[in-house]
Amino acid sequence: MNNKFKAIIFILLNCAAFTFSMTLNKFINPSVPVSLKVLIRSSFGVLFFSPLLVKNGLIILISKRSNLQLLRVLLISMAMGATYFTYTTLPFTIAISIGFTGPIFTAVLAYLILKDRLRIGQWIAILIGYLGVVLMVNPQGKMNAAIYIAIVGNIATGLSLICTKKLTRVDSNSTIVILGNIGLVVVSFLWTSLYGLASIFENDWLSINWVWLTWKDFKLLIAMGLLGTISQLCNVKALKYASLSFLTLFEYSRLILAVPIGIFLGEALPGCEQIIGILLIIAATIYNSWQGNVEVNHEK
Predict the structure, then answer these.
(1) How far apart, in whole angstroms, are the C-alpha atoms of residue 254 and residue 294?
(2) Which residue in 237, 247, 242 sits closest to 290, CA to CA?
(3) What percent of the chain has pLDDT over 90?
(4) Is residue 130 in a domain?
(5) Residue 296 lies in a domain
(6) How far is the C-alpha of 135 from the C-alpha of 283, rounded, in Å?
(7) What's the pLDDT tens digit per position in 209-246?
(8) Dihedral, CA atoms, 12, 101, 150, 26, nearest 10 degrees?
(9) What's this model's pTM, rounded to 2 decimal places?
(10) DSSP string for residues in 219-250
(11) CB atoms within 10 A of CB 66
């Protein structure tokens, strides 16, 4: 099996696991703090990968680029928090569609950081994709802060993917995934602790409502932890075999799943302006993916 086919299989598995994980998120009490969701999800991520520690020993926790691992953890924490908030607040199909702006930001970041070359047509496609984002945000209607948070999260995701790309050249997949989940546990625990302390001193100026998980919410988060871990591992494996620009084309398999899931959840379909925005974003990213290189560009 060649690297191209392996990359396609892993990225499709990543998309499916991520989509079903975010579907489960819709059934969790929306008042549950995002940081608590991330903490439990990442804790079970560590649990699911604990056999790797038993098999490989503590050496698996040693990275050749610890500073880059730390940066990746901080970026993933930001991206995951934004993602949970977005999928809790926005309709499912819209949330998925906003996620497609990620490859546009990633292409620009890869150009600036990884020195990936972009042709004139790709820059035009990026501008078209940006126009699609403007239509999705819908400046003529009511502003929705969740969309802006989603875009910030996508930028953080793009930066974390670049970190992951660099780390796959020096660290094993197991090291990247294990350290990423342990780091998420630490960061989300700190945020959850601060949130909990702030809720104790709630007043007219500080309105924070702490909501404990029900048993149903807890079971859903366990399942999300498993799916999220599978998604993360498949993403790392896909990046091992192919470039970011090639893999982005297959991210649209999420939209194929999102539309029927949105209908199942009883949500309204996107409006005309948003559909046009979605199509522009998809067209821009497909073009950039088609123009991108398939092979991984290793550093010399």
Answers:
(1) 21
(2) 247
(3) 4
(4) yes
(5) no
(6) 14
(7) 677 778 888 888 888 888 887 887 788 788 778 776 66
(8) -40
(9) 0.71
(10) HHHHHHHHHHHHHHHHHHHHHHHS-HHHHGGG
(11) 11
Instruction: Tell me the residue range of the domain where 95 lies.
Output: 3-291
Provide CB contacts within 8 A for 208, sequence distance 6+. Answer: 195, 198, 199, 202
Q: Which residue has the higher pLDDT, 77 or 264?
A: 77
On whether residue 298 sits in a domain, the answer given is no
And the tokens for 220?
A: 């859903």
CB atoms within 10 A of CB 111: 15
State how far the Cα of 293 lies from the Cα of 246, in Å rounded to an integer: 6
pLDDT digits 0-9 by tens, 278-294: 777 777 766 665 655 44
Chain centroid to CA 115: how far? 23
Task: Over range 129-154, report the average pLDDT.
Answer: 70
DSSP state of 212: P
144: Cβ contacts below 8 Å, ≥ 6 apart: 89, 90, 137, 138
Q: Would 181 be classed as within a structural domain? A: yes
